[in-house]
Amino acid sequence: MRDVRRMIGRKALLERVRHVQDTMQRRKIWRERGGSRDLVAEVKAKKARTKELLATYDHHPKLAVVVTSFNQVWNVPNLASRLLTNPYVDEVVVSEDGSIDGSLEAWVERLEGPNQFLIRSNDLHEIRSLDRALRLSRADICCIVQDDDVVPEDPEWAKQVLDLFERHPRLGVVGGFIAFEEPPADEGDTEEPTLEYWAHIRWTGDEFRFVPTVSVGPYYVRAECYRELGGFDTSFSAPGQAGVGFDEEFGLRAWLHGWEVGYVHQPFKTGEEGKYVAAGGTFLYGEASERTTHDVENKRKIAIAYGRHHDTIVDLVARSNERLASAE
C-alpha cells in the first residue's frame, strides 16, 4: 500500500514538473513575440483600477445613445462630456465609420466605462453602421445622435423622452429634429408621384404630439419596435452612399405595424429654429450633386411605397392625437 502511495506521489510530482515546464515554455514564446513583464504589470494595474467600475455594468439598460461619428473630431469632447455624465443615459455606443481626423482616437481616450462601446467600420454610411450599433445595444430605448449635434447641457432632455415612452406603450419612434405633418399622398394612376409631403415639415414645437414620421437627430426608437420591423431598410443606399430618408421611411412603416411615432422639439441643432448651423458630413465629404439626386430618388421611393397608405396613416395619427388630448 505504501508503494502504491509512493508511485501516485511520484506521478503527481512529474505532472507538476511538466506543467511548470510547459508554462515556462509558453512564457518564453510570448516574450519572443513581444511580451514583457512591464506589459503584465500595466495590464494588472489597469484591471485593478477598473475592478470596481466593472461591477457597475448594467445588464438591462433603459436608454442608450448611439452616436454616428465621421470626421467631426471638434465635437467629440462636447458629445462625450455631456453623454457620459448624463444620469439618464445608461449606455453609449459610438459608431465610428472610418474617420481620419483623430475622431477614433478621441473616442478611445474617453470611453472607459463598462457600458461604453465603440464600433469601427469603414465608411459604410449611416444605414448599415447604425443598424450594427442598434443591434449591439441592450437598451430598451435607443437615441441616435449625429456627430455634429450639440447635446444640451441640461440632462432633462433624456428624461423627457423616457417619460413619453413610459406613458405610451405603443410609441415606437420619437423625433426631436424634423416632423413631417403629412404622409405621402396617393396620386392614383399618375406615373410621377408627388413629393409635396416634404414641404409639410416642422422644426419647432415644445408640446409632444403624434406625427406621420420624423428625421434623425435626435431620433429615439424602441428596441422592440426596431426588431419587430426588421430594422432600417438598407435598400435606401449602397454601402458608402448616403441613405437619405431611411429614418422617415421607418416611421411610416411603424404606423402600419401598430406602432406610434411622435415629435417634440429638442435643441440639438444650434441654428435658427433648431436648423443646421453648418454643413454636416454628408455635405462636406460627399458629392453634392450625387446626394441631391439620391435624395430625390429616395423621396420618390417613399412616395410610391406609402402614398396608397396616406388615408390610413392620417387616420392613425389623428386617433392617437385625440387620445392624447383626452388624456390631458
Topology (elements, then pairings):
Layout: H1 2-32, H2 37-54, E1 63-69, H3 76-84, E2 91-96, H4 103-110, E3 116-120, H5 126-136, E4 141-145, H6 156-167, E5 171-175, E6 179-180, E7 201-202, E8 209-210, E9 213-214, E10 219-222, H7 223-229, H8 246-256, E11 260-263, H9 281-285, H10 288-306, H11 310-327
Parallel strand pairs: 1-2, 1-4, 2-3, 5-11
Antiparallel strand pairs: 4-10, 5-10, 6-7, 6-9, 8-11
Written overview of the protein:
The chain is α/β, with parallel strands linked by helices and 328 residues long. It has a single domain (55-327), classed as Spore Coat Polysaccharide Biosynthesis Protein SpsA, Chain A (Alpha-Beta Complex), CATH 3.90.550. Helix content is 45%, strand content 13%. The protein is built from 11 helices and 11 strands. It has helices at 2-32, 37-54, 76-84, 103-110, 126-136, 156-167, 223-229, 246-256, 281-285, 288-306, 310-327, and strands at residues 63-69, 91-96, 116-120, 141-145, 171-175, 179-180, 201-202, 209-210, 213-214, 219-222, 260-263. The strands form 2 sheets. An 8-stranded mixed β-sheet has the order 3-2-1-4-10-5-11-8, sandwiched between helices. A 3-stranded antiparallel β-sheet has the order 7-6-9. Helix 4 links the parallel strand 2 and strand 3. The protein is elongated. The termini are far apart. The model has no long low-confidence stretch (mean pLDDT 84).
CATH class label = Alpha Beta
Shape: elongated
How many strands, which pairing sense, and closed or not: the largest β-sheet? 8 strands, mixed
Strand order of the largest sheet: 3-2-1-4-10-5-11-8
Give, in order, the helices and strands: HHEHEHEHEHEEEEEEHHEHHH
The number of distinct β-strands equals 11
Structural class: alpha/beta
Q: Report the portion of residues in β strands.
A: 5-15%
| Helix percentage | 40-55%
Please identify, by name, the CATH architecture.
Alpha-Beta Complex
- Full CATH superfamily name: Spore Coat Polysaccharide Biosynthesis Protein SpsA, Chain A
Output mean pLDDT: 84
Task: Give me the CATH fold name.
Answer: Spore Coat Polysaccharide Biosynthesis Protein SpsA, Chain A
Radius of gyration: 26 Å
Number of helices: 11
Q: Which regions are unreliable across 5 or more consecutive residues at pLDDT < 50? A: none
Q: Give the termini separation.
A: 88 Å
What is the assembly state of the chains in this entry?
single chain
What is the number of domains? 1
